[in-house]
Amino acid sequence: MHCLRRIIKLPISVDKAWDFFSDPKNLKVITPDNLGFNITSDFFKDKMYAGQVITYKVSPMLGIKMNWMTEITQVKDKEYFIDEQRVGPYKIWHHQHHFKPIEGGVEMTDIIDYVVPLGFLGRLVEPILVRGKLKEIFDYREIKMDELFGVMR
């Protein structure tokens, strides 16, 4: 099991942060274009809810398209939500999104616990390919959040 943890502080209210990040359509806004990320599921609500299944097409490496399906397993309004992969590139994917009011804004924490497939081969390439790609994705998200909201340093 591997873990990636990211904390970012934004000079916006918890309400504004929650409104943006709990709308599944905004995931495309904060995902690098080179991943070929497209949401393929239809939404019946603008805001996520526990039990919601979201499907995507994504090209994480070499332009190879793959299906990814996540389920929003838990939601506590304006505090956290959790998505878990049901179908996709990981053996296990558990992503926690936490929101905490702080002076002048909101602190957002992402905690991603994951296991790569392919046993020994997966463990061999994880530090180079997978961890690097995840860091790249979250670096991009920080840049996009800075463009959209400003980032507190």
What's a concise summary of this model?
The protein is α+β, with helices and mostly antiparallel strands and 153 residues long. Helix content is 25%, strand content 38%.
Give a verbal description of the structure.
The protein has 153 residues and is an alpha+beta fold. It has one domain (2-149): START domain (Alpha-D-Glucose-1,6-Bisphosphate, Chain A, domain 4, 2-Layer Sandwich), CATH 3.30.530.20. Helix content is 25%, strand content 38%. The chain contains 2 helices and 7 strands; from the N terminus they run E-H-E-E-E-E-E-E-H. A 7-stranded antiparallel beta sheet has the order 1-7-6-5-4-3-2, with helices on one face. A hairpin with a 7-residue loop joins strand 3 (53-58) and strand 4 (66-76). It is globular.
Q: CATH superfamily name?
A: START domain
Architecture, according to CATH? 2-Layer Sandwich
* Distance separating the two termini: 30 Å
Biggest sheet descriptor: 7 strands, antiparallel
> What would you report as the Rg, rounded to the nearest angstrom?
15 Å
Q: Tally the beta strands.
A: 7
The total count of helices amounts to: 2
Question: Would you identify the regions where 5 or more consecutive residues have pLDDT less than 50?
Answer: none
Instruction: Give the overall silhouette.
Output: globular
From the 3D structure, determine the CATH topology.
Answer: Alpha-D-Glucose-1,6-Bisphosphate, Chain A, domain 4
Series of secondary-structure elements, N-terminal to C-terminal = EHEEEEEEH
Arrangement of strands in the largest sheet: 1-7-6-5-4-3-2
The fraction of residues assigned to DSSP E strands is 35-45%
CATH class: Alpha Beta
